[in-house]
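Supplementary notes (optional reading)

For those who missed the lab, this is the record we used. Protein: Actin-related protein. Length: 278 residues.
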Amino acid sequence: LQREREAGIPSEQSYEVAKAIKERYCYVCPNIQKEFVKYDTEPDKYVQCYHGLNNVTKKPFSVDVGHERFLGPEIFFHPEFVSSDYVTSISESVDQVIQQCPIDVRRGLYENIVLSGGSTMFKDFGRRLQRDLKKATDQRLMLSEQLSGGKVKPKNIDVQVISHKRQRYAVWFGGSIFIEEKMELGVVLYDQSEIVITSQGNKISRKAKTYGTQNIRLSGYTIVMRDVLLRGDLAQIRYGKYCVLQEGTIVRPPSKCFSNGLVFFPVHFGDYVFIEKI
């Protein structure tokens, strides 16, 4: 975008200049048409100027940054601006991925959309993504209500896009934790004589202690290893696909007080899991 308008950018520094402009001046706008009007009516207020030094000639150069401030990030939401080969926005991609998941986990996924990567650091990126996803879910619920003739009123879906302090390098942090020896999961491979496989695909070690099992429900693809203690009166345990409950883990009943005064809360998919290690 800058090359089309600014001829003074050194070609060998184009990436460096684009990166600096992206990080300093770019942001995500809620309405691209209104943003054009703002820049056209008050250019002195919104147009920024980037100053750099040519690495070869050592001469200073400057670049005016106008509509590019919001047009650059807008590519995430309107990729067709760059190429007609790409027409699916990031909002649509996230929505499609969640819709392809099992229906009973979709609400939890919509409530836990975590941003990661440098390009998500644009100002108001999360707010725009959350707005677009909320609009898509509301339209889908409205259509369902119309198709039912107004007989079914679906519960609203809460969409939460989460920003956090490690957002820029979240993938790197996750990878460093994963390869940390102290965090390595010691998964034990059981043969058929050592485990019980339920109809929902849960794998429960015969050496696990399951008290009050008539009230315990595992949602599927949960591996309960030996020496895991499950107490009675549990709601559904939904840790996600192929969750491993490690040896020496105790899962307590939800919302129940014990003699030692400890209170443990219900476990729901998408929430933080409260467990106590023996």
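If you only remember one thing from this example: The CA atoms of residues 99 and 194 lie 36 Å apart.
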